Amino acid sequence: MPISDAFAARLEPLLGDLVAAYGTPFHVYDAAGIADTYRAMTDAFAGEPFRQYFAVKALPNPHVLALLLAEGSGLDCASPVELELAAGLGAGPGDTVFTSNNTTRAEFELALKTGSLITFDDRTALDRTDPLPETVAFRVSPHGLAAGSRLMGDAQATKFGVPVDQLADAYRQAKARGARRFGIHGMTCANELDVDRAARAATDVVELGARIAEEVGIELDYVNVGGGLGIPYRPGDRPVDFRRYAEAVLAARRAAFPRSAPRILMECGRYVTGPHGVLVTTVVNRCGKGREIVGVDASMSALMRPGFYGAYHHVTLPFAHGRAQAPYDVVGSLCENMDKFAIDRPLPDPREGDILLVHDTGAHGLAMGFTYNGRLRPAELLLTREGDVVEIRRAETYDDYVATVPDRPGPVLPAARHA
Ligand SMILES: *Cc1c(COP(=O)(O)O)cnc(C)c1O
């Protein structure tokens, strides 16, 4: 869907001047939209023990993360670098969750040192960790849960989490090693727009947590229902009614835990920042080759989702009012045929020099970027609540592209060592 009316109303009046002054391409994010979305989430859980940890991987720009931390958000990290980023921003013990997969002992040690709430993705990870963290949590595999939820892939083929039938043993094992505090994690949907299905997925985790806690004889400090709430990428999609979602999750918690009130944690990424970002490009090429092609000055390296998994991102030309609509392919410059932002998309006769916006790039956008073909990643700008546009990451340059290459390679294995 087009970005929110509020963001459009803030961005459109300054877009012409901004592009004239700064050039394209760039992503621009709306600080007010991000903070307001976060606040609406916490408001929906007001008075209840709840915390949202922003999934760093969705938009790992330190300035956006700092903004969220200042609002009271925690951060969800999945790698040592993300932990370092969070620590560098002053995230203290308890401000981060560490929900990783295929994790080494060294990574767990770092997570322990930073005071993260750790989720174990399998039982062997628990074996490898000594001492145990103060609170032990396992991620339950999507297997058998919320079967109706789309996009998490084949539950049987998942690499994530502990299978349901091994979960009680996993907690027993932790208990036998002296663990006294426990949590549970489950993320069983992705980009889910149907609020009932999303609530059902969370409810499954809450109910499973209660059953396991009873079976093993432990109390749960928290239930982390993960991320995975969707955003309306397509015109006509409706946003998730977060209040209704929160009410359903709290009702499930009250029913499943009549005597205790474990905290509800979430790790949304896309829902918080996705709709509050736009990729701003310029049309640099128009041609017909059986298909009508619109070439822009950004590539899949700035936004991988459409080319990678056919994801829909809305495209608009803010200054092309009144032109006749016809279908076009919107393409970048990579030597890959999948480098297309849109296929057969009705657009108002794009012309060279037009500004073209790709919407909803606030999550899993630049973060998934790469530098194939030497098409380097563009800048990130932030529209502040005060109305300034600030550069929060410059565009990459040739020097960045070769920064990891030494002028004179030194031997890592001298010939003498293997002669
Ligand atoms: C990717 C991921 C998230 C965030 O997903 P969104 O779709 O951006 O909400 C949260 N938790 C875990 C474990 C993830 O892998």
UniProtKB/TrEMBL annotation:
Residues 34-273 form the Orn/DAP/Arg decarboxylase 2 N-terminal domain. The lineage of its organism: Bacteria, Bacillati, Actinomycetota, Actinomycetes, Kitasatosporales. This is Diaminopimelate decarboxylase. Its cofactor is pyridoxal 5'-phosphate. Keywords: Amino-acid biosynthesis, Decarboxylase, Lyase, Lysine biosynthesis, Pyridoxal phosphate. Pfam families: Orn_Arg_deC_N.
